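Weekly modeling sync, notes
Attendees: AB, CL, MP (scribe)

Item 1: holo prediction request
CL wants a bound-state model with pyridoxal-5'-phosphate before deciding which constructs to order. AB pointed out that an apo prediction alone won't tell us much about the pocket. Agreed to run with the ligand included and paste results into these notes for async review.

Input as submitted:
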Amino acid sequence: MTSIDDLPVRDELRGQSPYGAPQLDVPVRLNTNENPYPLPEALVERITERVREAARHLNRYPDRNAVELRTELAKYLTRTGGHPVTGEQVWAANGSNEVIQQLLQTFGGPGRTAIGFEPSYSMHPLIARGTGTDWIDGPREPDFTLDTQAAVRAVTEHRPHVVFITTPNNPTGNAVPAETVRAVYEAAQAARPSLVIVDEAYVEFSHGDSLLPLLAGRPNLVVSRTMSKAFGAAGLRLGYFAADPAVVDAVQLVRLPYHLSAVTQATALAALEHTDTLLGYVDQLKSERDRLVTELRALEYEVTVSDANFVQFGRFEDPDGTHAVWQRILERGVLVRDNGVPGYLRVTAGTPEENDAFLDAVREVKKELSA
Ligand SMILES: *Cc1c(COP(=O)(O)O)cnc(C)c1O
C-alpha cells in the first residue's frame, strides 16, 4: 500500500499528522466547542427561503466580494463590539480557519515567521505549516495567563512577521487583557512592521469586552471572528475579520475567486437576521459555563478561569493519568477533549442535561480512582 511518505509531498509535511479531533458517536459530545443548541425553527425556515432564492441564480457566480454579507457583519460588530466598523473593514471566508489561511498567505509564507503563545489554538501552527510559514512557540505562564513582559521579550527577540493572540484562549479559556495586546502590538511594530491577529472566536462568551476598539490607529491589527461558536453554525463554515480596509485589499491578492458560495452567503445573512435569538442561547451557555467552573472547583479540580464556552480542568498525573481520565469519562458516554496540555482536559459547555451527565461522570470517575 502506498503511504504519504512514498509520495513526492513537500519535505516539511513528511511525518506530520492532520487536525483530528475525534468525531465519535457517543450520547454527549462536549469536545469541539460547538454550540449544543440546534438553530431555531424560524431561522431554519428563513435559511430555506433565502437559499431557495439563491438557488434561482446558481447558474451565475456568487458576489465575489460578498458585499451584502460584509455590510451586515459590520453592523453586527458595530452593535456588539463597542467600536464602529464598516463593510470595507470586514472580510469573510469559509470559517475563520480560511480567514487565517488567507492572512498567512498574504503576510507569512516561505522565509517568514509567525508566533503564538502556547498552549493555544492548534490550527494556527498547522495553517502556518501549510503556508510555508515558520512557527515560533511563544511563552505562557504556568497558570496559562500571558505575561506581558515575557510576550514582549519574545516578539522583540524573534521579530516575527505575524503574531497570534487568541482571546479568550483555546484550549485554556482565559482572556488576554487589552493592555497586553497593546504592548505586544507596539513591540511587534518596533521589531518590524508585522501583522497582529487577535483571534476572538469565543468573545461573545466572555465576561469582558471585545478588543475591536484597539483597531483605531493600528493598521496592522486584525480581529478575527467566526459564526461557528456563538451563532451555533459550525456546519455553515463562516468566519470573518475586521481590520483596516488596506488589509482587506491585501487578502484579495490570495483569495480564490468566488470562494464564498451563494448558498453560504444566503445562509449567513439569514442567521444574522436572527442574531438576538442566537445571542440569547449564548447567555444560557455562559451561565452553564460558570456552573461547570463552580462544580468542578467544588470537586477540588484546578479549573482555569474561563471566558469561553468551555472549561479546562485538571490536574491529572500526566500524560497517562490524563488520558485514563478522558477514557473513563468516555466510557460513561461523555466525550471531552484531551488537547495534549499536560495534566488537563477540556469540556465544552453543553445543555444543562449534558453538563449534568458530564458532572455525574466526573464524580464517578473521581470516586473510582480514589477507591
Ligand atoms: C473554533 C475556533 C475557530 C473557528 O474556526 P472556524 O473555521 O471558524 O470554524 C477559530 N479560532 C479558534 C481559537 C477556535 O477555537
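Recorded for review: The chain has two domains: 19-39+276-370, 45-273.
Action items: CL to compare against the apo run; MP to circulate these notes.
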